[in-house]
Amino acid sequence: MPKHISRLIMLLVILGVVAYAAKQYFTVNSFYEFGHYRGNSVADMASNKPKFKGSASCKDCHKDVYKQWSEGIHYNPAAGKVVKCEVCHGPGGDRGTKGMFDHVSTGPDHPQNMKMIVPTDTVKLCVVCHEQIAGRPAQQKQIVIADHAGTQQCTVCHNPHSPLTINEAKPTPPIGNVTAGKADVDAAGCAACHGPTGISDGLPGPNLAGQNQPYIMAAFRAYKSGARSNDFMKDIVANVKDSDITDISAYFATQSCKSAHNGDADAEAAGQKLALASKCATCHGTNGISRQPVWPNLAGQSKDYLVSALQAYKNGGRKNGFMTKITKDLSDADFANLGAYFSNAKCQRDGAE
Ligand code: HEC
Ligand code: HEC
Ligand code: HEC
Ligand code: HEC
Ligand code: HEC
Ligand code: HEC
Q1: What are the pLDDT digits (tens) for 174-199?
Q2: Closest CA to 100 of 51, 52, 44
Q3: Ligand 6 atom nearest to 342, measured from its CA
Q4: Is the pLDDT reported for residue 103 higher than 60?
């Protein structure tokens, strides 16, 4: 036999032996137990440590949070809708990372050796399920972020564990310079329509005294951007620098308010009933002092202004997701009653005029 042929045969034999040995070495013993399946894999998987522990596992150690959550809108097993703890906080356990097959029952667990993630950017978290997008089924409640929350975190208003519980903000001192604001207000001539201290008393503009600063700023910027339009305000805002708005709003927000008191008693009573039924208080408080500073106080505003604002939301002249929805089913008579109620309300938290 020629030398090169015998070498080739030798090589093939060696390869055969190596291949057979490799097969013996790498194939798990239980491989042929159930045909071409590894007999032990079921037990292997069953002993694999779960990463997700389920919400019930959190109950004993986090009683208060668990109670809020299980009574809240994110826990609705009857409808098959449950937003589990670990959806927002990440898995409560982990598998080991020691080696290829070591993961089976090692790895840290919360609270030993493992901290849960506490979501800080709730805008990013919550909009995964709640941002309005075309094609998302209407059953899933959706929001237009900018209109609904501006740039605020969702947790400013929503308790993440019971999202229909709306938080009330603690009053905070205004930002900006009140004295500089006064000078800007005088220079711009706001007093002609809003009064020198923001009490308009029969002038064409609404009261601004004691109004929430973030709301005044947002309203002013809305006129500037054209999102809100009004013939009186159009020319005014063009002449005010964006950088002056903080000081101007600080000035008006710190002035003492004065209730308009121009609704009659019967209308006021009807308005109070309707305000309760329409849940105005969720945002504007029971007496028209709003629960978050981005929402306007209504207390003390004149009846006519309140009615004109409500009509504007209904007919599309003013746009806001909340108010458009709320005014849709209310009539002009309802608006008149609501206007009477809030115009008679005390304009400060402590009940002062
Ligand atoms: C055996 C008791 C126990 C269980 C079970 C438990 N936790 Fe905790 N959890 C703790 C303790 C103790 C702390 C505080 C210490 C820490 O921050 O690690 C804590 C802290 C937290 C924190 C706050 C962490 C921080 O950095 O502020 C979150 C969030 C949390 N747990 C979520 C959960 C969730 C979700 C579950 C269920 C999957 C769960 N926990 C199950 C005991 C437990
Ligand atoms: C929809 C998302 C979401 C779900 C579901 C959720 N959490 Fe939270 N959780 C948060 C957010 C956001 C925070 C941070 C709150 C803050 O910054 O005020 C938080 C904070 C916490 C904290 C620490 C602060 C505190 O309030 O005590 C604990 C503990 C906690 N969650 C446990 C749980 C447990 C247990 C569950 C399930 C019963 C759960 N969470 C379900 C979003 C969620
Ligand atoms: C994994 C998806 C998911 C995430 C993340 C989530 N939600 Fe929800 N949310 C739901 C579902 C589903 C419902 C509806 C439950 C039902 O209809 O019973 C709901 C209901 C709500 C509701 C009540 C809507 C209504 O009027 O019926 C509010 C408010 C809400 N979520 C706010 C939040 C906030 C705030 C966050 C972030 C902290 C958040 N959600 C995170 C899925 C989610
Ligand atoms: C300034 C306060 C505020 C902020 C910030 C806020 N919400 Fe809301 N949200 C509310 C109020 C008030 C309601 C109405 C609750 C009610 O009807 O009882 C609401 C309702 C909702 C609803 C139900 C909408 C519907 O059609 O019924 C969803 C979903 C929701 N919010 C999600 C979010 C998410 C996600 C964020 C963060 C991007 C967020 N919210 C930020 C105040 C706020
Ligand atoms: C020529 C009269 C006039 C002048 C001058 C004027 N405003 Fe107004 N302002 C109005 C009227 C009218 C409204 C109500 C418009 C509407 O219904 O949208 C209004 C509304 C506002 C609002 C919204 C209030 C709310 O409750 O929504 C703010 C904020 C405001 N003005 C600030 C100012 C500031 C600051 C100045 C001075 C730089 C000023 N205005 C000057 C007439 C005026
Ligand atoms: C879910 C929150 C929410 C509820 C509930 C709500 N509002 Fe509002 N309201 C707002 C927001 C936000 C604005 C400011 C919108 C804008 O920028 O134009 C507003 C503005 C108003 C204004 C204009 C105030 C001004 O100074 O221009 C009036 C009037 C008003 N709401 C009346 C009501 C009445 C009456 C009810 C009950 C029938 C009600 N709102 C229920 C959120 C709410």
Answers
A1: 999 999 999 999 999 999 999 999 99
A2: 44
A3: 35
A4: no
> Which atom in ligand 3 lies closest to the alpha carbon of residue 88?
5
Long-range contacts of 198-203 (CB under 8 A, 24+ apart): 198/251, 198/252, 198/255, 198/257, 199/255, 199/257, 199/258, 200/302, 201/258
How far, in Å, is the centroid of ligand 6 from the Cα of 296? 7
pLDDT greater than 90 at residue 6: yes
For the chain, the distance separating the N- and C-terminal CA atoms, rounded to the nearest angstrom, is 118
Question: How much distance in Å is there from the Cα of 136 to the middle of ligand 3?
Answer: 14
Ligand 5 mutation pick, 185, 186, 193, max ligand atoms within 8 A of CB: 193
Dihedral sign of CA atoms 330, 333, 336, 340 in order:
negative
Task: Single out the residue of 325, 310, 288 nearest to residue 211, CA to CA.
Answer: 288
The residue with tokens 């809003």 is 194
The pair of structure tokens assigned to 8 is 């080739």
Asked if 339 and 303 count as a contact pair (C-beta separation under 8 A), the reply is yes
Q: Whose CA is nearest to atom 5 of ligand 5?
A: 190
- Torsion-angle region of 316 (φ positive above 0: left; ψ -120 to 50: alpha; else: beta): left
